[in-house]
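User: Quick sanity check before I run a bigger batch. Here is a single chain. Can you write out its predicted 3D structure?
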Amino acid sequence: MSTVEELQAKIKQLEGKLSASQKNVREKIKEMSSEVTDSNPYSRLMALKRMGIVNNYEKIRDFTVAVVGVGGVGSVTAEMLTRCGIGRLILFDYDKVELANMNRLFFQPHQSGLSKVEAAAETLRNINPDVDIRTYNYNITTVDNFDNFTEVLRTSNLNGGPVDLVLSCVDNFEARFAINTACNEFNLSWFESGVSENAVSGHIQFIVPGETACFACAPPLIVASNIDEKTLKRDGVCAASLPTTMGIVAGFLVQNSLKHLLQFGIVSNYLGYSALTDFFPTMTLKPNPNCEDSNCRLRQKEFALKPKPEIAVEAKEEKSVHEDNEWGISLIDESVNVTEEVTVAEGIKLAYTLPNNNIVEECEEATADNDISLDDLRAQLNDM
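Assistant: Done. Predicted structure follows.
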């Protein structure tokens, strides 16, 4: 046997041992992840149940989440959900892994050239083989693929129904509008997320059709102006990418997804992040009654007809702090009542009207108790 043949035989032998070792590790992880016990080191998040944060953390295995876009935010989001033990994870993307993607927290150099969904599935199955991972390698914005995309969203949960949540991790408006259209049509809740071109800010937005503003309710200015978003691309300038910003936004996204699915805490309607100032703006966006998406307007009508939960307000009896009131102190309302409403325009009125400062209250003329004249007072003053 030649030296080359001996080396090849040794390599095959080592590959066989490595494959067997990986198989043992996978079987061990699967065995551990299937156990629902406090001593399970793989499911450390079970501690949330013991600490009273969630009622039933095991329910995470019953949910199906679709992640659209497996890039900087999407790949990290998929990894976090896999480590949390999500029941089924569906991945959509059509790009390939490049060496430029190695600044991410997920992809590895040997995966260069693979489709992103294929590379992601390989890594995620090694992390937790207990998660059912499905991949779709196509562009959701084309006519044919959009129909396939909506079909997957409608029929792919563990019971054959619609997915429980859609996470948008795409980097263009066209794909966001495609997701928005599908979720409005089939009444699916979803999170929109994004990172700025300079990589120092990002955001997440929770969208419930009919209840909150959809992506078409308040579109970006360039889209609302019917300008092609591709004109934003500057020649010779590549969008920046920081694993820190990507990881922070992905963390916000998964954290709020868990809060929504497992029903704990308060889900952020909109949460922003500015790395330059460490500023985290939050807000709630109401739906636009004149939204261009007809399904959004339909969902708004359906939501308006839903019975709203009554919030019981317990009346508290105010106790007097100082019943004796030794010094006779009392509070008197000295504000001026303004009854006249100022109309700004038809259907609009001021929320607050300043009191009229030109009103002068009448008061009695000040007089001296002993009717002493001013001359007598001056004479008394000079004698002192």
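The longest helix spans residues 3-34.

User: Great, the batch can go ahead then.
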